[in-house]
Amino acid sequence: MKKITGSITTPTGFLASGVKAGLKKSGKEDIAIIYSETAAATAAVFTTNTMAAAPVLVSRNNIKKGNARAIVINSGSANAGTGDLGLKNAEEMVKLAAGHLNLPTDQVLVASTGVIGVQLPMDKIAAGIAQAKAGLSVNGGENAMLGIMTTDTFRKVSVYEQQLGGKTVRMAGIAKGAGMIHPNMATTLCFVTTDAAVAPAILDKAWRDAINLSFHMITVDGDTSTNDMAAVMANGAAGNKVIDQASGQDYELFYDMLKAVCTDLAKLVVKDGEGATKFLEITVSSAPSFAAAKTAAMAIAKSPLVKTAFFGQDPNWGRILCAVGYSGAQADPAKTSLMIGGVPVVKAGLDAHPDHQTLKKVMAEKEIKVEVELGLGKEQATVWTCDFSYGYIKINAEYHT
């Protein structure tokens, strides 16, 4: 497996576009289309928020057959909290895209991101979708990326290639997200394309497993969005033998590539966390189960006290162990140890008296590893988060509602 430069259109048979339809005050790209020139197995996961946005409801229905040819996305308005009219408008977005692309409506998925509670300006949406269809190109990946961004400060792209059954298979992903990030799916949007040939049911399993170990292992602020959606399209244009079982070398190679793309994108979302100055990798090991390890790690990652301590470069280990203690995961202070940046800070529940200057240098780093050993088993889990800075408060205090 090799990481390469490229875009969402690097896999064979995919086109994309991103256009300026006037939905964003910034005047930047705000409507995107990702399109497969041939039939594509498709899988998707969505927010668990019960206040799910209209496009989520529409796409959940359209994905039931396990295949799609296009995804239409708008940024600038979430089309959430918009009632029956919002649902009608999401359906209309699908109809408009399907009409321009000469596709059945159930072959089109729709996604939105932006301000909640605002109806879509359908005249601008209609004109934008027509423009986006006209602009579809193998060179349209960059503009499509721009078209899905909101408070993001940089592009989030990951592209890989490898040999599967003697064929070169490529996979590319893009994502957006900086705030309201706490997936079970968060606002996170993620779209992946691949020219691998994969049976729909197998793609669905691989996708859910990859998401569970990537996007479901990140948090920025603990808030799960109304609009989260992550979808993958596999059109088989690479010509490899169809992967129709969730076992064997080809499946494992495909899954590893899928997980790599998702992990790259998930980490980029965290690194672009609103106001973030530090990227934190939190691993809880020697736990009785993966679930317990994840529960403890996520409690640390979500803790405002932990996150602000890292922003202030304060190695406040008490806050970390406090989070483990209230997480609900089984823990025994006498067996618990902690390292920050490779420096032992706590041993058997007690202060390890680390060298102050060494720890000070660690806390000044932009990327820091936090490692907790529970001493209760053999399972572990790693989650990724960022600190809370003054910038996070400023961005969210000034964000228009």
Automatic annotation (TrEMBL):
GO terms for biological process: L-arginine biosynthetic process; ornithine biosynthetic process. PANTHER family: ARGININE BIOSYNTHESIS BIFUNCTIONAL PROTEIN ARGJ, ARGININE BIOSYNTHESIS BIFUNCTIONAL PROTEIN ARGJ, MITOCHONDRIAL. This is Arginine biosynthesis bifunctional protein ArgJ. InterPro entries: Arg_biosynth_ArgJ, ArgJ-like_dom_sf, ArgJ_beta_C. One of its GO terms (cellular component) is cytoplasm. The record marks T113, G114 as: Involved in the stabilization of negative charge on the oxyanion by the formation of the oxyanion hole. Substrate binds at T150, K176, T187, E274, N396, T401. The record marks A186, T187 as: Cleavage. The lineage of its organism: Bacteria, Bacillati, Bacillota, Negativicutes, Acetonemataceae. Belongs to the ArgJ family. It holds the Pfam family ArgJ. Heterotetramer of two alpha and two beta chains.
